[in-house]
């Protein structure tokens, strides 16, 4: 049966090639021949490079190409001129550096100059001593032009006041005062001002005894408004701090009190330096007055009684012994009794004079009603805004709430 060409081609493709056993051997031989050829070529190259003349004028780093020996007719011709040696041009050396200039300066101070001799100027007296008199002469002539005062201002004749007591002296000094003037000024922030002369009512929290000086405390009992009545400046319950004196004379019934500080509940504080008064503005506080009659007169009365008894016994003894014959003994006894009586009398007088100096004691109980007479304007403007500013804030608040 005859096959088609396609089947024969497929059959040939399926047949495996028979490996050549000498292929590996032939490959090894080819490699050896290639190595031998490379060694021979390298040897020839090295031998050729040794025979070439070397140009020393050129450095080893310069690129060179292989030159061939010219033919004989060329070598036998005219000799080639030797290449010119390169001329190395060296730059001129730099000039030597200039030495630095010596800048050291020596400031030699000039020789000291002797100061010129001081000439003492005689001291000129501000007012000559001969014109300084310890006496002052005043011309009080009513008809002349020298009826002025000591300060040079022309004034009327001095007022003559009869009497030399304190009231007359006060009247004379008050009459000698000339006309005085004061410039008015506008008070600012009347809404936050407590003016001078305001009475601040209060209640005393601590008791007062005038034997020793001390401090006292009180609280306000009513609200105190500003000068224009816009707001309450001193609310009820504000604390008041003050001091009282202990110098009380005989016949005195009031104790002097000074209120120094005011402290509000919100922490605001102000100096008062004002006087304590009663509801009618009279200075001082009234209280119970202890005149201390027992301390002042008790010891002297007792000594007077003892001295009187001693005097009585002295007279009684002298009458009983008048008919006695022993005059010397009786005279000695009488002298002793008189001495004792005189001693007790002197002691009573001494004690009385000392006890009369004991001052009375004024006691003011706790809870007493007091008043403070303000002696200066109390300014609280730093605690409150200006009324115009407050009105603007109120308007803005109303507009924002709409």
UniProtKB/TrEMBL annotation:
An annotated GO cellular component: plasma membrane
Keyword annotations of the record: Cell membrane, Membrane, Plasmid, Transmembrane, Transmembrane helix
Membrane topology qualifier: Single-pass membrane protein
Record's compositionally biased regions (Pro residues): 80-100, 108-119
Descriptive protein name: Type IV secretion protein AvhB10
Subcellular localization: Cell membrane
TM annotation in the entry: 29-46
Pfam families for this protein: TrbI
Domain of life: Bacteria
Homology family: Belongs to the TrbI/VirB10 family.
Region of interest (Disordered), residue spans: 1-24, 49-120
Basic and acidic residues bias: start-end ranges: 49-64
Gene symbol of the encoding locus: avhB10
């Amino acid at each position: 049966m005859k096959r088609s060409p396609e089947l024969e081609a497929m059959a040939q493709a399926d047949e495996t090639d028979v490996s050549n056993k000498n292929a590996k051997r032939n490959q090894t031989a080819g490699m050896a021949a290639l190595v031998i050829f490379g060694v021979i070529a390298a040897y020839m190259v090295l031998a050729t490079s040794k025979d070439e003349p070397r140009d020393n004028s050129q450095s080893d780093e310069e690129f060179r190409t292989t030159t061939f020996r010219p033919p004989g007719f060329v070598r036998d011709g005219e000799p080639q001129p030797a290449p010119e040696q390169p001329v190395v041009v060296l730059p001129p050396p730099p000039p030597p550096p200039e030495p630095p200039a010596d800048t050291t300066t020596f400031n030699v101070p000039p020789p000291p100059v002797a100061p010129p001799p001081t000439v003492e100027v005689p001291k000129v007296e501000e007012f000559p001593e001969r014109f300084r008199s310890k006496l002052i002469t005043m011309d009080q002539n009513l008809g002349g032009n020298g009826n002025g005062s000591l300060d040079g201002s022309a004034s009327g004749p001095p007022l003559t006041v009869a009497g030399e007591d304190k009231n007359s002296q006060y009247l004379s000094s008050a009459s000698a005062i000339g006309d005085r003037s004061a410039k008015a000024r506008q008070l600012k922030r009347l809404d936050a001002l407590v003016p001078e002369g305001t009475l601040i009512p209060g209640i005393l929290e601590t008791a007062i005894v005038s034997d020793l000086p001390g401090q006292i405390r009180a609280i306000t009992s009513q609200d105190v408004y500003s000068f224009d009545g816009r707001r309450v400046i001193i609310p009820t319950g504000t604390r008041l701090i003050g001091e009282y004196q202990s110098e009380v004379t005989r016949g005195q019934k009031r104790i002097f009190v000074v209120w120094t500080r005011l402290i509000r509940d919100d922490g605001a504080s102000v100096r008062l330096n004002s006087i304590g008064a009663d509801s009618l503005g009279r200075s001082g506080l009234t209280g119970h007055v202890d005149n201390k009659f027992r301390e002042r007169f008790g010891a002297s009365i007792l000594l007077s009684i003892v001295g009187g008894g001693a005097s009585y016994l002295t007279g009684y003894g002298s009458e009983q012994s008048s008919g006695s014959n022993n005059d010397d003994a009786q005279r000695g006894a009488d002298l002793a009794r008189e001495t004792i009586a005189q001693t007790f009398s002197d002691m009573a007088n001494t004690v009385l004079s000392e006890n009369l100096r004991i001052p009375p004691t004024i006691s003011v109980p706790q809870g007493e009603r007091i008043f403070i007479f303000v002696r200066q304007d109390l300014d609280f403007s730093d605690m409150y805004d200006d009324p115009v500013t407050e009105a603007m804030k109120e308007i803005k608040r109303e507009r924002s709430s709409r």
